[in-house]
Amino acid sequence: MVKTHIGQWLYTFPWSQIVSGFWQKLPNPYTSSKINKLPRWGERIFYCGSGSTIEFIIEESVCDLKQKTFTTNTVNINLKSLMTVEETCVYRPDKNDESRTICEKKVVARGELFGFKTTLETFAIQRYKKNQEYASLGLEFILHKLYLPQLPPPPITGIKTPDTRTFSRKLSDKAKHLLKSSNNDTL
User: Fold this and answer.
1) For 2-186, CATH number?
2) At what angle do helices 117-147 and 162-186 cross, to 10 degrees?
3) Are 128 and 107 in contact (CB under 8 A)?
4) Ramachandran sector of residue 5 (left: φ over 0; alpha: ψ -120 to 50; beta: rest)
5) Where do the structural domains in the chain lie, given as residue ranges?
6) Of all residues in the chain, what percent carry a pLDDT higher than 70?
């Protein structure tokens, strides 16, 4: 059995800034999500299965300047006797507004431990859903710091509510307006 989750995130920054900012995304106020405590049952399963509860991952990134896509593929390189988790993220300009970027995210979890496959897959997908939001918020935080330093960063929250998303968009729109008006003043 394999479990899959597909999600999407809209960034209020152009694709070129996403690609550039991606390499500077760590550290940020959301990086604590990079270290996750396993539940007690997970510690027993993972330690018994591999002798370690530390999971290492490898990430491959491909930037296609012609197609304007930035793709990251991430997979765990150990603990594969228990479970494999693969994530693919594709960043591309929003077709309706080139000043925004859409990230399509897909994760596939495959449990390998007989009797625990479904439990491991469900756990992996639930953990991913929580962490991918923190990763997206962290990148947004860095993008604000890099490209909108004159404005306060979006509020740091555990969960992005519609209010904070609106706040983020308003800040981005205000920054664009300020940049346009300053460019007009210099012409």
Assistant:
1) 3.30.530
2) 30
3) yes
4) beta
5) 2-186
6) 70
